[in-house]
Amino acid sequence: MKRSGINVNIRRFKIKDMDAVLDMTKECWSGFSFDQKIESLFGRRGRAWWEIKRESIKAFLEAHPEWCFVAEINGEIVGYATYSVDRDRKVGHVLNNAVHPKWRGRGVGSALHERVLEELRNEGMDIAILVTSVHNVPARRMYESHGFKVVWEALYYAKSLKEEAGSIRAKRETKKWTETQHVSEA
Ligand SMILES: CC(C)(COP(=O)(O)OP(=O)(O)OC[C@H]1O[C@@H](n2cnc3c(N)ncnc32)[C@H](O)[C@@H]1OP(=O)(O)O)[C@@H](O)C(=O)NCCC(=O)NCCS
């Protein structure tokens, strides 16, 4: 397949591609990861966000190597797309689609996505569903230009429990102190 003047080969993932796919995790997902957001807000807690993402992709690929396509340019893996099929419900899940930042904006993500959709059709799926962040403008553009519509919106909340414990204690102490002052002044 030729896009933006580059030859992109979309093919099935093979176990020997594992390291190439996993080694792109940090660069591919930086700026688009919820765990990275949490890490930036609350500090690193144990494993880095990209190690968590890497482990989840590795676990997925070990369990379902058949549910992944990779994109190659000149024999180098530059992106990948994972999916899953629910044969009972005939629902296909479009999962992780990532292109190395160096190769973005040249149709690689779309080529992977189209291959996934083709495969979901081949598998007899009736519906394709996917989740992405409202902040992920490139992904939203890609999915919406392939006809996906927003059907549900969700919000992710987080707060520091330590801060709250501290601030509740501080409030209680202030209240106690004010009451004592009030009594002693009376
Ligand atoms: C989303 C992603 C896979 C797109 O890959 P890509 O190879 O750059 O995408 P393409 O070049 O095929 O472009 C696809 C569409 O997105 C648009 N697009 C790409 N980058 C964009 C950007 N930075 N801002 C706005 N639109 C953008 C393109 O114009 C194109 O739209 P069109 O079909 O209407 O012309 C890539 O940005 C990526 O790896 N992001 C990080 C991982 C991620 O968030 N994945 C998706 C969540 S599962």
Strand content: 15-25%
From the alpha-carbon coordinates, what is the Rg to the nearest angstrom? 23 Å
> Which spans of ≥5 residues are poorly predicted at pLDDT below 50?
181-186
Distance between the first and last residues' Cα: 86 Å
Strand order of the largest sheet: 3-4-5-6-7
Ligand roster:
coenzyme A
Supply the helix-strand structural class. alpha+beta
What is the CATH topology of the largest domain? Aminopeptidase
Put simply, the count of helices is 7
The CATH homologous superfamily of the largest domain? Gcn5-related N-acetyltransferase (GNAT)
Q: Determine and state the CATH class of the largest domain.
A: Alpha Beta
Q: Label the overall shape.
A: globular
Structural notes for this entry:
This protein has 186 residues and is α+β, with helices and mostly antiparallel strands. The chain folds into two domains: 2-155, Gcn5-related N-acetyltransferase (GNAT) (Aminopeptidase, 3-Layer(aba) Sandwich); 157-186. 45% of the residues lie in helices and 20% in strands. It has seven helices and seven strands, in the order βββααααβββαβαα. Helix 5 (108-122) links the parallel strand 6 (91-99) and strand 7. Helix 3 packs antiparallel against helix 4 (49-63). The structure holds coenzyme A. Coenzyme A binds next to helix 2, strand 6, helix 5 and helix 6. Residues 28-29, 32, 96-99, 104-110, 132, 136-139, 141-142, 145 line the site of coenzyme A (COA).
